[in-house]
Amino acid sequence: MFPALLTALLIALARPERGSLILDGLVAGTLLVLPTLIYGLERAGGGDVKLRLFIGLVLGWPAIIPALALAFVSATLFAAVVMLLHRLSWRSVIAFGPFLSLGGLLTGAFVALKKL
Fold first, then answer.
1. Interior angle at CA 88, CA 82 and CA 90, nearest 5
2. 28 with 56: CB under 8 angstroms?
3. Measured between alpha carbons, how far is 10 from 12 in angstroms, rounded to an integer?
4. Rounded CA gap, 75 and 81, in Å?
5. In which element (H, E) is residue 18 found?
6. Tens place of pLDDT per residue across the chain (116 aa)
7. pTM confidence score
8. Are 63 and 107 in contact (CB under 8 A)?
């Protein structure tokens, strides 16, 4: 993640809206740090914080909001379906990184298509 973060930061600094992108990256990176503080790194990973920071630096405001919303909705739907299939219990832990990536990719693709 660190090479990707450095690249995203350098690109954000080169863009005219750099202040907004850096602020968005910091907001996204610190958003929902509470689960990490409450449950510890073994249950709520620090990788998610770095990934949110990266997505915020790349997408900026307001695109970070639907990206995070898509991540939460897709993770919730996945967990609900897998729980209905009795593959997970309420105490199970799932990785959130793939859902953050999905939200960021879908939102990034939508933003790119909208600019065409």
1. 115
2. yes
3. 5
4. 10
5. helix 18-30
6. 788 888 888 887 887 777 777 777 777 666 656 666 776 766 666 777 778 878 887 887 778 889 989 999 999 999 999 999 988 888 887 888 899 999 999 999 998 898 87
7. 0.76
8. yes
